[in-house]
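assembly run, all chains below
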Amino acid sequence: MTENETGGGATGTESAPMVLEMRGVTKTFGPVVANDGISLSLHRGEVLGLLGENGAGKSTLMKILYGLYAPDSGEIFIDGEKVEIRDPKDAVRRGVGMVHQHFTLIPPLTVAENIVLGAEPRRGVSLDLNRAARATEELSERYGLRVNPRARVADLSVGEQQRVEILKALYREARILVLDEPTAVLTPQEAEDLFGVLKELVADGLSIIFITHKLGELLGVSDNITVIRDGKVVDTVRTATTDEGALARLMVGREVLLQAERDAHAGKASGEPRLEAEDLVVRSGTGAVAVRGVSLAVRSGEILAVAGVDGNGQTELAEALAGVRKAEGGRVSLDGEDVTGLGAEDRRRRGLAYVPEDRASKGLVQDFTLAENNALKTYEEPPFSSKWGWIHPKAMRKKAAENLRAFDVRPANPDARAASLSGGNQQKAILARELSGDPGVIVASQPTRGVDVGAIEFIHRQLLEQRSEGKAILLISLELEEVRSLADRIIVLHAGEIAGEVTPEATDEELGLLMAGGKSGGSS
Amino acid sequence: MNPRRMLGDAVGALLFPIIAILIAFIIGAIIVLATGNNPLVAYAALLDGAFGSKLSLGRTLLNTTPLIFTGLAVAFAFRAGLFNIGGEGQLFIGAITAAGLGAALGGLGPLTILLALAACALTGFLWGALPGYLKARFGAHEVITTIMLNFIAINLATYLALNPLRGKGIVPGTGDIDPSSLIPPIGLGFGQANYGILLALFAAVVAYLLLWRTKLGFRIRAVGLSPGAAGYAGMRIGANTVLALAIGGAFAALGGGVEVLGVYGKMTIPFVSNLGFNGIGVALLGRNHPFGVVLGALLFGGLASGAQQMQFATDVPLDLADVLLAVILLFVTATKLVELIVGKRARALAGDTRLEKGLGS
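ok done. output:
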């Protein structure tokens, strides 16, 4: 690998002064080396992409920069001065701002209150809210971060909440802004807006570290890209001189297929519906009606994708189909049998596999071993248990070892605790459990959310293989690329209703319009 | 898992409580010094009084027995993610059951013991199921309900012992149980120690097998560690809540029954106190593992009998034992505090290696 760091470039950022340099940063957790001598540099007005698989060490590195972890060794320089960052307060004082993937806003408070929280302007002993609102307005105008300072955060869309997070960092005079997977929760249009804002910010002299696993968007937005693999910097490349294939290779360490080979696994849609929903109405945990009369049918040998912006009823739809949430109205049937009144366990026995979107807290018992997790749904069946209620840990371990190997889970150690695995490997472990039972119907909710490219590829292949074996698959996804490359048909969910049905050939604009609630132009 | 690694894990799991115990004894030594006594003499007497002779060992075992039962009551429920503060009341329910039934069935000999203990388990099970049901059905928090039920149980048992079940003796309480129907002493110079300790150890093994070798235990542990994942896997959270608290109640009640049938021969009023509450400390010290509970109960029991000897040998009051226990528990639960004192390395060691892993699967 070559170092392409220096030399005047088209963007001109390399000649700008260096604002941040991390040198030889090493961090270990017990036997695990999360960061192994990582060095990177960030110049004034630069957008640096930080790319790496899940578990590669990106988050650890950024947590060190933000003072959440102390490095074992290594140095950090800000504006050429060696600094020691002990806690986030230190980081903020040094001009480092961070926008976490999961927002840290207080929903009942207003935008302005959230922004000034912890650094409130005061008048005497009382909070000067007018000044807070004015400061917010000023910042939001300057950078095109449109948001109403007096609105309650609870009433904002996800995209707006993200803007508030960015404003929060700017209000604290951040000069270095770290964005952790910022587009994961946005619609394509919102993501475009964000990229526009980032351009304004760097034009004003800020420097940005942009963490993502989406190769494509990094190419559009960054100046340089540092790729991390297994805790080490593999290479730092100029964005202008690279492409998706090269980046994916750096990131995974081998060739990957970016487009799932949908057509190579030609589906055998036999037309016989296996999973059906009729006028399904489902309430969310808060009691609001989240799914409003959805009807759909998934046939043998096809992948039906449900697209849409997060929070439009996808979760509740999947849960109601899987039987973990009661339907308020309507019907669910499996292979023609009405299963509306049956629970998750009975539906599983009838051949329904379910990959929940929240793998960490719903898919796995984190403190169970992989062997126990593998038997989480089938522990009452032979060979895992016998009559009299005894279970057989040995049989659980043996079956888990087989499944883990077959699904390339690393480490393939049945005695390892689920919590010790990376996100991608956890997801593979769930797939191993769900698919090894040879189900007829698969409901997969965001199966690749937050997992690395290597695991995404593997999961896509598994789903396509299942399809070619004649399984009926319902795929819920927020990633349009994924939906397009896997689905035979796409329905778009908006506000709990089906906004329309399109083919995988539909354009971003068509899909975006449906996701925003516009009815489709007759293609359904 | 190979035996060597199992051993390593078990040592790792014990390390943390041992550090806590050491720190507590150092603090205790300072207190002893402050009272004008020699800590070495005091601790020698403490050790001697706890394990120094057959007689003192017998006393320690006698103290340990009910604490194993009440510790299991807390630990078992904790595995399902529940805090059972009701051990005290559950123990009283078991005691009155054993006392009443033991006196009534006095003529049956050893069969009485069996029947009385089975009845204890049943009444304790039902008494424990009550807060479980209140939680599963109405969402009432088990900490509140088990505490409240303690008062009800203690007063109910006291009322029964002093009124309908009152015996003739001078000491207020239930009628005497026929000596042939009592749990026999071990003898062999162990003083008052009786075979109840074997029952307690057996109960710990049963708790272990239930948790790690049965479908029920698998469910309870899954629900305890992750209600979300357990629910998604089709397990019924409510039913497991009821069962876990009920089984915990049965353990505590057996402790009460063994006290009555092994030590007192009847339920005297006032009856023993704080065994149920000390069970919480025992479970904490034993990291909610049945075998850890046995060790924790042994420490509690040993300190109680050793403190008496210490009071004889020096001017150090009995209360020092309570101080030591309190400090030990403080350090066992306040992990950050130990981290401050001995450094993060030890903390990491203790955190990664958990007792249930070492002694489990």
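The longest strand of chain A covers residues 18-29.

DSSP finds 17 helices and 22 strands in chain A.

not gonna interpret more than that til we talk
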